[in-house]
Amino acid sequence: ELYLYGGHQREWDLLNKDRGYPNPIPLQEAYFGVGYDAAPNLMIEGRVVRPLGQRDFSKIGFDGFKTRVEMGTRIKF
Questions:
Q1: What torsion, rounded to 10 degrees, do the Cα atoms 13, 19, 22, 23 define?
Q2: Which of 18, 44, 67, 73 gives the lowest tally of CB atoms within 10 Å of its CB?
């Protein structure tokens, strides 16, 4: 089976650049992707993620990036 999905996600910086209190402004991202059931218990997915608005922090290792492509698998058990 092939399926399309999309949505919105938020992530908060709990360390807030080592200030000791959470950053109240979350990192907001919109995503859309496609998935495929390769086997009864294995799904393969790929998606495009785009940050929204002004961001105060980035995911680890993605400083300076705007749009990124993510690929992954999911195992059902």
A1: -60
A2: 18
pTM for the model stands at 0.72
**Pick from 24, 34, 26, 33: which is nearest to 9 by CA?**
26
Tens of pLDDT along 21-76?
777 888 889 999 999 999 989 999 999 999 887 776 667 666 667 888 999 998 98
From residue 70, how far is each of 9, 16, 22, 35, 62 by CA, in Å? 14, 25, 26, 12, 12
Angle at 1 between CA 6 and CA 40, to 5 degrees: 110
